[in-house]
Amino acid sequence: MELVGPIAVGLTRAVGRIDVSGTNHLPFSGPAIVAVNHTTIVDVAPVLAALYQAGLRPSRPCGADGCETTHGHVRFLATELVFANPILGPLVRHAGFVPVGRGRGAEAALKAGLAALTRGEIVGIYPEGDVAATDDGAPRRFRVGISKLALESGATIVPVAHHDARQIGSGSVARSLLGAVTSIVRRPTVRIRVGAQIKAAEYAGRTIAETAALVQERVTAVWRSLAGTPDEERPAG
Question: I need a surface site. Which of 97, 128, 159, 189 has the fewest CB within 10 A?
Answer without folding.
Answer: 189
